[in-house]
């Protein structure tokens, strides 16, 4: 049976933009000014949107305006829809352009400060990309961002997701190390004796480094008492400098702490060692040789950091670029 109700003729995307602006400001006048249109035009967009959807989006009896239940649902969906449209526009511009308009890179939080200046110069001078967008986070954040096309490249650690549709460029393999307070004066070559004097502060199991550490300790049948866990290297190191804890971390997880002069002793593990990889991951076939060049630049910058920050450590890092 044919629906006899006419469908209003309107620009749905523009109406959603107006709706989102009003939902944020709760005032049509302010929203219209933000969008560069008249209050009357903004009101017409809202009216047609409500007619087209067959619902009321705002309770107009209150000031400032309040979203109805339908309005709250639309607000969540419209946010995703408009983001997808922006991503689509960006992807299409890339296909039509000889150069990228923007390059979005996700970085491990622990090395973001070390890599940012060099990546900026690389993108500006060699890639000649007008805009660079950087974000810092955990490897799990990078998985979500890559899958959702929120970033183009991730400089990350061992992936915990299917990378069959991605280009993976190894940067380096680095060892996990024993991190003690500088004030610690007990034995350093016996993990059992260390754990009698200090408690382990570790990454939470939500972080890949935390899972890797727990799995390795279980394989080695090493049972360590714990007092604290965190999802950022800076917080783990903060536990160590209390003088009451020790940690198991890699050089990339320690760069910022060593650069800030925190009072630490860094040693090789007194039991079977293990490593993690730092990788560059990008969607296959979209960026030419950019992922390889980013990986090579990251390897050079991290090598310099390690030679500067950890001169007394044995050569345990393997570079792939």
TrEMBL record:
State the superkingdom: Bacteria
Organism field? Aliisedimentitalea scapharcae
This protein's name: LysR family transcriptional regulator
Record-annotated HTH lysR-type domain positions: 13-68
The record's section on Pfam families has: HTH_1 (PF00126), LysR_substrate (PF03466)
Q: Source organism lineage?
A: Bacteria, Pseudomonadati, Pseudomonadota, Alphaproteobacteria, Rhodobacterales
**InterPro entries linked:** HTH-type_LysR_regulators, LysR_HTH_N, LysR_subst-bd, WH-like_DNA-bd_sf, WH_DNA-bd_sf
Q: Which UniProt keywords apply?
A: DNA-binding, Transcription, Transcription regulation
Which residues does UniProt assign to the signal peptide? none
Which PANTHER family did the record assign?
HTH-TYPE TRANSCRIPTIONAL REGULATOR YBHD
Work out whether the entry's keyword set contains DNA repair. no
Q: Record's family?
A: Belongs to the LysR transcriptional regulatory family.
């Amino acid at each position: 049976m044919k629906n006899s109700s006419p469908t209003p003729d309107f620009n749905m995307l523009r109406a959603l933009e107006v709706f989102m602006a009003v939902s944020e400001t709760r005032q049509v006048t302010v929203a219209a000014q933000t969008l560069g249109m008249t209050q009357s035009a903004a009101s017409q967009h809202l009216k047609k949107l409500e007619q087209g959807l067959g619902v009321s989006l705002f309770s107009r009896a209150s000031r400032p305006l309040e979203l109805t239940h339908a309005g709250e649902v639309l607000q969540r969906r419209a946010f995703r829809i408009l983001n997808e449209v922006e991503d689509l526009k960006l992807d299409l511009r890339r296909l039509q352009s000889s150069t990228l308009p923007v390059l979005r890179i996700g970085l491990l939080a622990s090395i973001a400060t070390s890599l940012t200046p060099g990546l900026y110069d690389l993108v500006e001078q060699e890639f000649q990309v007008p805009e660079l967008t950087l974000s810092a986070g955990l490897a799990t954040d990078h998985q979500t961002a890559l899958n959702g096309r929120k970033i183009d490249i991730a400089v990350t650690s061992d992936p915990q997701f299917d990378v069959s549709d991605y280009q993976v460029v190894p940067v380096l393999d680095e060892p996990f190390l024993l991190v003690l307070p500088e004030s610690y004066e007990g034995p350093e070559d016996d993990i059992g004796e260390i754990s009698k004097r200090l408690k382990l502060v570790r990454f939470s199991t939500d972080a890949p480094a935390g899972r890797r550490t727990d799995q390795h300790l279980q394989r080695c049948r090493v049972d360590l008492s714990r007092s604290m866990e965190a999802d950022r290297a800076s917080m783990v190191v903060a536990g160590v400098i209390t003088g009451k804890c020790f940690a198991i971390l890699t050089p990339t997880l320690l760069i910022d702490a060593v650069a800030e002069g925190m009072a630490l002793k860094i040693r090789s593990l007194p039991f079977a060692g293990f490593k993690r990889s730092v990788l560059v991951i990008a969607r296959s076939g979209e960026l030419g040789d950019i992922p390889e060049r980013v990986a090579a630049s990251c390897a050079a910058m991290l090598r310099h950091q390690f030679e500067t920050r950890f001169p007394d450590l044995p050569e345990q890092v393997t570079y792939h670029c």
